[in-house]
Amino acid sequence: MSDAPVLSLSNLGFAYDAAGPDTLHGISLDIPAGGTTVVLGPNGAGKTTLLHILVGLLSPHSGEVWLSGRRQTDLTRRELSRLVAIVPQNEHIPFDFSVLEYVLMGRSPHISMLGMPSERDHEIAVESLRTLGLLDLWHRPVPELSGGERQLVTLARALAQGAPILLLDEPAAHLDLGNTMRLHGIIEALAQEGTTVVFTTHDPGAAASVARYVVLMRDGRVLESGPVDTVFTSERLTLAYGVPVRVATVEGRPIVVPGQTT
Predict the structure, then answer these.
(1) Can you tell me the distance from the alpha carbon of 98 to that of 245, in angstroms, rounded to the nearest whole number?
(2) Cβ(216)–Cβ(204) under 8 Å?
(3) How many CA atoms lie within 13 A of 70 on its CB side?
(4) Quick one: what percent of the chain has pLDDT higher than 90?
(5) What region does 68 belong to: left with phi over 0, alpha with psi -120 to 50, or beta?
(6) Where is 25: in which H helix or E strand?
(7) Residues 249, 208 contacting (CB under 8 angstroms)
(8) pLDDT tens digit sequence for 207-242
(9) 134 vs 106, 174, 177, 186, CA distance in Å?
(10) Which of 123, 174, 111, 181 is nearest to 145 (CA)?
């Protein structure tokens, strides 16, 4: 993992309602390039909101976002889409696109306004499906897929986008154990190849299994950020979740169990 940040946030604030409370409060944060960063915290911590700001779906009411050394507000929509891809928790698909058609949408930032996908675009889409073990589903209508299959197909579309920064919002939410383990393997492989992977989770166990860098959040604030072995302490996780949490080390990796901290 490079020491240079690929994502930088400076004094970031956001509220869904101008008359209501802030959802994010003055967040300043550097996310290093390459490797896997996990944004961890309980429900309502502001994790999804943060990802939506990073990908440009929401605009902060204060502060700045920098991506690969460029101010986010200076980027066109196409430029931003070539830098950042996102896999949301849920995505409504109004039409009966086939799996291949849907994954090809990930190539949109690389296709001209009135252009059609090229042979290379098709090759990249097929390779994304192959990477996730989904090639046999290429002809299936997306609405007919199971929740887990649809989540993996959404990831395939993001991979086809070819962006160096990949954001995943609770990516294992609809996956069984086998597919969760496969997902973690894919995340690790992408990180080793140089992709900056940032994913949110409320599950410390999931974070501990793949994270190299952790951003710990609660109530719209960053409590701590840094390498997993410095952030994953019983005291910090207990503070974040408001219940006793114990951290132990097994085969060099932290494991997290509920219970007394002493």
Answers:
(1) 44
(2) no
(3) 10
(4) 60
(5) left
(6) strand 24-32
(7) no
(8) 888 888 999 999 999 999 999 889 989 999 999 999
(9) 16, 16, 17, 13
(10) 174
